[in-house]
């Protein structure tokens, strides 16, 4: 039976030629040594190389445990007076003088502006003259009634005549009352030509200048009353449901000033048509000295969504596997990793809250998740400083 020579052997022996059978024995031995060496080299080159072993990856891990989820709101607010009045004249007229300026402090009763009062004074004088005429007519009717009353006592007239005089007296009295009321109304109209401060406070805005003809009720000044202060801020429509009347909050100034406490006293019933946010007013306590317009940072703790026990992991631990979110869980016995599908509830700073998929005590890879494969052996990098205990730790604040 014929056996074909190995191709590597054929290639090796093809380079060695034996010239003649008459070579000396030493040369034959040397030639066969060369052939053997060539065969060894050729067979070594033809042998199949083995695959390199998969490297052992170094990863960072944490041991997950229960911690508190404290959802907090953080808003920028503006300090405003609890009561701010738009002051206007109760009568129409030409603005002659405006004594108040923006930022000026005024007292209750101070005259802030005046309109032309000449027409109102003339009308008041006319009404007063009518009242005097009505008074005269009433006095005449009263004297006439008194005379007829004496004549009736002497039986010179009938009782019907006296009754007519009594009716005339009542009509004269009614006319007098009407004239006096009109005179008082016209006098009031003249007094309304002066705009006076309704309370002590600060003028925050001026909306009319001297020489301008104003309609009755048109705003001339804005007056912020002295007293309690509010912190007014806007809340997005998707978060306004977390707030409620009477909710306690704290406010601090941007310059690291004192902390003011307060409670929500008003939540807008509808959203702003442009910004789609809801205005919220926080009644501040002991803040009467705060300047108007100061910016405060309002914080609300323990909003809706806070939970006493949740499991959180850093966002760097998450890995997207198709439509699922997963994390690598370490088996400390075999030092291998396995994918664990989890459900994310919400985000909190650089962490995410896990709704399901993890249990306290499990070790989760938080760095190097994108270079791992299932059942891959790993080593823990810097284990003492990165392993977390199950003791709840302080949670970062969520800004809403």
Question: Short summary of the structure?
Answer:
It contains 5 helices and 23 strands. By secondary structure, it is of the alpha+beta class. Residues 8-23 and 384-400 have low confidence and may be disordered.
What does this structure look like?
There is one protein chain. The chain is an alpha+beta fold and 400 residues long. The chain has five domains: 40 residues, no CATH class; 91 residues, conserved putative lor/sdh protein from methanococcus maripaludis s2 fold (Beta Barrel), CATH 2.40.420.20; 57 residues, Beta Barrel (OB fold (Dihydrolipoamide Acetyltransferase, E2P)); 74 residues, Helix Hairpins; 74 residues, Elongation Factor Tu (Ef-tu), domain 3. 26% of the residues lie in helices and 35% in strands. It is built from five helices and 23 strands. The strands form four sheets. Strands 1, 2, 17, 18, 19, 20, 21, 22 and 23 form a nine-stranded mixed beta sheet that branches. A six-stranded antiparallel barrel has the order 3-12-15-14-13-16. A four-stranded antiparallel beta sheet has the order 4-11-9-6, with no helix packed on it. A hairpin with a 4-residue loop joins strand 19 and strand 20. Helix 1 runs antiparallel to helix 2 and helix 3 runs antiparallel to helix 4. The longest helix is centred in the middle third of the chain and has 36 residues. The two termini are 89 Å apart.
């Amino acid at each position: 039976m014929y056996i074909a020579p190995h191709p590597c052997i054929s290639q090796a022996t093809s380079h060695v030629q034996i010239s003649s059978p008459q070579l000396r024995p030493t040369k034959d031995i040397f030639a066969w040594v060369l052939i053997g060496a060539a065969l060894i080299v050729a067979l070594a080159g033809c042998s199949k190389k083995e695959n390199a072993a998969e490297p052992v990856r170094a990863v960072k891990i944490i041991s997950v445990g229960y911690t508190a989820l404290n959802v907090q709101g953080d808003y920028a607010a503006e300090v405003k007076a609890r009561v701010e009045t738009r002051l206007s004249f109760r009568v129409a007229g030409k603005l002659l003088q405006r004594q108040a300026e923006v930022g000026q402090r005024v007292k209750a009763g101070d005259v802030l502006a005046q309109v032309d009062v000449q027409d109102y004074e003339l009308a008041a004088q006319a009404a007063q003259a009518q009242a005097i005429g009505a008074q005269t007519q009433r006095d005449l009717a009263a004297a006439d009634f008194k005379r007829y009353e004496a004549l009736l006592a002497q039986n010179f007239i009938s009782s019907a005549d006296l009754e007519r005089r009594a009716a005339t007296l009542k009509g004269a009295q009614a006319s007098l009352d009407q004239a006096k009321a009109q005179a008082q109304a016209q006098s009031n109209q003249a007094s309304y030509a002066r705009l006076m401060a309704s309370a002590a406070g600060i003028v925050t805005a001026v909306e009319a200048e001297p020489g301008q003809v104003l309609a009755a009720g048109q705003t001339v000044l804005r007056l912020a009353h002295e007293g309690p202060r509010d912190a007014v801020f806007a809340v997005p429509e998707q978060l306004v449901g977390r707030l409620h009347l009477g909710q306690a909050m704290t406010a601090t100034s941007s310059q690291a000033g004192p902390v003011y406490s307060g409670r929500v006293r008003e939540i807008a019933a509808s959203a702003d048509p442009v910004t789609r946010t809801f205005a919220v007013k926080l009644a501040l306590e002991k803040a009467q000295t705060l300047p108007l317009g100061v910016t405060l940072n309002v914080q609300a703790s323990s909003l809706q969504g806070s939970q006493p026990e949740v499991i959180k992991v850093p966002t760097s631990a998450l890995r997207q596997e198709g439509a699922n979110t997963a994390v690598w869980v370490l088996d400390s016995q075999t030092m291998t990793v396995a994918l664990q599908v989890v459900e994310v509830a919400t985000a909190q700073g650089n962490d995410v809250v896990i709704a399901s998929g993890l249990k306290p005590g499990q070790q989760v890879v938080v760095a190097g998740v994108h270079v791992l494969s299932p059942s891959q052996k790993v080593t823990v990098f810097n284990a003492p400083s990165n392993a977390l205990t199950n003791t709840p730790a302080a949670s970062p604040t969520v800004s809403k």
